[in-house]
Amino acid sequence: MASPVSGSKRRLRPEQFTKGLNPRQLEAVEHGEGPLLVLAGAGSGKTKVLTSRIGYLIASGVVTPDRVLAITFTNKAAREMKVRLGASLGSVAHDMWVSTFHSACVRMLRPYADRVGLTRQFTILSEDDCKRLLRDICDDLNIDVKQIPVGGAKVAISSAKNGLIDPRQLSIESSDDRSNAHARIYREYQQRMVASDCVDFDDLLVHAVRLLTEHADVREHYQARFSQVLVDEYQDTNRAQSVIVEQLAAEHLNLCCVGDGDQSIYGFRAADVGNILNFSRTFPTATTVVLEQNFRSTGTILDAANAVISRNLTRADKRLWTRAGEGNLIALRAADDAADEASWLADEVATLVGEGVRPGEIAVLCRAKTLARPIEAEVVRRGIPCRTVGGTSFFERKEIKDLIAYLRLAANPQDELSFRRCVNVPRRAIGDASIKKIRAFAQTNALPLGDTLARREEIDDLPKLAREGLDQFTRLLDEVRLAAGAGGALGAIDAVTADGEFVRQLLDAAVDDEERRYRQESVDQLRSIAGDHATVESLLDMAGLITEADDSGDDQSRVSLMTIHAAKGLEFGAVFVVGMEEGVFPDRRCMEEGELEEERRLAYVAITRAKRRLYLSHARRRHSFDRVVENDRSRFLDEIPEELIHFLDVPTETTTEVLGRFAAMRSTLGV
Known about the structure:
Layout: H1 23-30, E1 36-40, H2 46-59, E2 68-72, H3 75-89, E3 97-100, H4 101-109, E4 123-124, H5 127-140, H6 150-162, H7 167-173, H8 177-195, E5 198-199, H9 201-214, H10 216-225, E6 228-231, H11 239-249, E7 255-259, H12 274-277, H13 279-282, E8 287-291, H14 299-309, E9 330-335, H15 338-354, E10 362-366, H16 372-381, E11 386-388, H17 398-411, H18 416-422, H19 432-444, H20 449-454, H21 464-497, H22 501-508, H23 513-530, H24 536-544, E12 559-563, H25 564-567, E13 572-577, H26 588-592, H27 596-607, E14 610-619, E15 621-624, E16 627-630, H28 635-638, E17 645-647, H29 655-669
Parallel strand pairs: 1-7, 1-8, 2-3, 2-6, 4-5, 6-7, 9-14, 9-17, 10-12, 10-13, 11-12, 13-14
Antiparallel strand pairs: 15-16
Helix pairs in contact: 1-2, 2-3, 4-9, 5-6, 7-8, 9-10, 9-11, 14-27, 15-16, 17-18, 17-21, 17-24, 21-23, 21-24, 22-23
């Protein structure tokens, strides 16, 4: 048994972490040694159980904080868990690893990067960088991106990596022209990643798997380092992530996985619901605790969610319940078309706000982003403050990506993508033609980018102005590296902007004063963020690990418009789920590919985001690719018992229906 908590200014007692728990939650928190699976239904307090269990283990002397590894799926969730643990445990919470899978993998990889063919300065590429690289590869391989879209290639490669399938295996399994092309692109993509000392998000997992499975000393180090491993949202893990978890816990088996198979909605990202459904097969000695009491929603909302999800055959049996009362019936609106749907929704939102509901307590959820556009336009037209989650994030802004590219190249001289992004920002007369000559010299001499720049005098036919610009650029990179050593990330950024030319050209390119102010504020904000990071590497890791899910923070001043995927993990007082039509939700392609059960899980997630009021709508007609399509209402609506629904006004008949009815009348009357 570990010694009592040291370093904490407060005396921790186990009973502090068991107060207010229901019997099932208490069972999970007090579980002893060995694997534990907590099947936590929506709104059942899983985060409380997870943090309480960590506190209980530490207060009981079972484990010291520095030997705890807690893994979540978003940076936002990790921050929230750290805050909760800090409030209950005090300063010792800082000793724990509480992070996302990808952040944990970065921390494991840096000290052992050479074991997987990287240096400790490896760069994490953004999604946009990856697609730029893939476009270059398609061009070099003479692959038509109209026939083999870059986005599809990225999805195929990502899926292969998450399933631990290497380029050779993907090539063997390829069965048609498209999959053959994806295999060729994948092989070249990985070769260029290694040459540039770069990784993408999926590589972080793949390299971590290699470390743990191929290097016994590394595996044993981390197994000894973490005597308690806890994983949130286990239903969202893919093959690579499940292997990492299994390897870390293989010796001591002190593993606690929390999740809900009914909320597994990321199959398109290679998440495998089988990881949670087959947990007891993987860990035969596992204890399973089911959390069914919901603390979020009304009884009516839960009855609807239970009715829908019970139609799935591949699931663990559970039924949500609450002591909160039945609440309001679910409002169901059948709209004429998208415009009618948007107008009705805006009316309802205005009414809710008028009744005192805060805009931030209202969310509009849809299966696809395109469904939100007419709604956003109508809500804005009414003067209701709203935000569309999933827009351009801070680290995707051009000026920020340009500055980050300087820092990445200073840290990793082989990062060709960063070189191409910032070499002519601000303008230095180094155009595409000059860059092609630099790349050709590198390929001819089999040189990495850093060595190529060092031998730039040997590059033939490089224009004088371009050569001078390249000299200026390399001197600046040296200054950035020196500044980074002396002043950390903030010093490096200030070195880039020191002569004022970067900011001057940035502001000159703005279309108006508002955009100028916006761009200047972006640079100032990055400086502020950099001030919190002692090293460039720390800032780059943070920037590289930001995901779209981290843009779903609380904002009580505006109505949220978002996809259902983006809403997972969130809750709102009033929720509108729009576009509930066959072919839209459930999505036609998903039905054709046999993914109806995941679509139903998505409906379950949407319904259970609502605390008190739930509105569902479908449109009889909707524009799709410049034509009007008439859809039946979603089967998910028919799966909700009628006694739970308040049916709103019925839409007017379509012109076709009216003409058809009159034709039938004329025929009956013999007219």
